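Reviewer comment 2.1 asked that we show a complete input and output for one of the modelled complexes. We chose the 1,3-dihydroxyacetonephosphate case, as it is the one discussed in the main text.
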Amino acid sequence: MARTTVIANWKMHGTQAEALALARGVRRLVGNRFPAVEVVLAPPFTSLETVRRALRGSRLHLSAQNLHWQPQGAFTGEVGADMLGDAGCSHVIVGHSERRRLFGETDRDVGRKLAAALEASLKPVLCIGETLQERRAGRMRRILSAQLSGALKGVSKSVNEILTVAYEPVWAIGTGKNATPAQAAEAHGWIRRGLARRLGEAPAREIPILYGGSVTPHNAPELAAVAEVDGVLVGGASLDPRSFAAIVSAFAANDTPRTEDA
Ligand code: 13P
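Response of the prediction step:
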C-alpha cells in the first residue's frame, strides 16, 4: 500500500511572520493527530528555516518547491539539493506545471532535478499533468507517459520508498474546477500502470499518487474515497490552516477502510 500523503504547496506566498503563523496553525490543528497520513509543508525558500523551527519535534515534514540539478556552482538564483537537505527539507517538489509553463522546464530538466534529489536523499514529489487543450485532443495518456518517461529515465527500480507522484491537470490548478473522482481515477490508474512498466508491479504499488488542482475541504472527502487517490497536493486551500487541516482529516478518515480492504 502507498502511504497516504497530504502536501501543502504555499507557492510564492507569505512573509516570514505569515509563514510562522500558518505553520503554527497547522501544527496546532494537525500535529500528531493523524498518524496514518504523511503531512508535508512546502513554503517558499525564504521561509524554510522559519517553518523548520515551527515544526521541530512534530511529525510534520518540510519540503522545498524546486531545486537545481547541480549541487553547487555559478547558477545565480538557484538552490541545490544538498543545500535543501541542510536547510531541513526531507522532500522537494519537482516539475510543477507552473515551473514547466512559466519558467520553461523541459522533461529533461525535470529528469535531471529528480535524479539530483534522489542523489541527495531528498524525497521528490514529481508533478505531471496535461493541459485542457491536450485533454480535449485526447492526448492525456500520451502526455502523462511522456512526462513520466522524461522524469524517470535513468532512475533505478528501488525508488518506491522515496518517490511520490502528483497528478496535477493544468486545467484544474487555481481554477476552482477540480477533476471529478472518475477523471482522477482514470489518470491515476494510467500513471500507476506507467510506473509498473518502468519500475515493476510491486514497487509501483507502493508509490503514492496524489491528486492536485483546486482541492478544498468541500471536495476532499469525495477525492479521498477514490481508491486510486493516495492523497493530495494542495495549493490555495493550504494557505488557511483550518482548510488544510480539514483536508488532512478527510484523508485520515478514509485511510482505515482502504487499508483493511487491501
Ligand atoms: P490549487 O490547489 O490552488 O489549485 O493549486 C494546486 C497546485 O498547483 C498544488 O501544487
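The pocket of 1,3-dihydroxyacetonephosphate is lined by residues 9, 96, 168, 173-174, 212-215, 233-237 (CB under 6 Å). We note this here for comparison with the apo prediction described in Section 3.2.
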